[in-house]
Amino acid sequence: MSSIKFKKILSCSSEDEIHCAENLFKSKKWLSSTGTDDRIICIIEFEKPSLINSLDIGNNGSAFIELFVSNSDDDDDWTILLPSTILMTPKESRSNTNCLQIKN
Question: Per-residue DSSP letters for 51-70?
């Protein structure tokens, strides 16, 4: 199965200087900037409309993840692809333990 090609990052709410959102294009880490405890969001445009059959999500310290998809430029036209999913407990997230998980 081939991977979906990313075209560009449309927006990102927070990113570390070294582990920036562009790293998602290279299957590397995307981290929020230091001191960001709230939800962080990254909106990525694919090169072309694509059918998503499966997901492999690498985690680096997030307690939860939720994925939305859209096939338009309308900011209000989002569908839940992956409902809020626990990747680690909030305690593990705060203490930075058990943080390198993969969800497929």
Answer: ------EE-SS-SEEEEEE-
Q: Which of 91, 83, 36 is nearest to 63 (CA)?
A: 91
3-state secondary structure of 86: strand
User: Which pLDDT band, with edges at 50, 70 and 90, does 102 fall under?
Assistant: low
- pLDDT tens string 12-28: 999 999 999 999 988 88
Burial class (CB in 10 A: 0-12, 13-18, 19+), 4: middle
CB 15 within 8 A of CB 31: yes
The reported pTM is 0.79
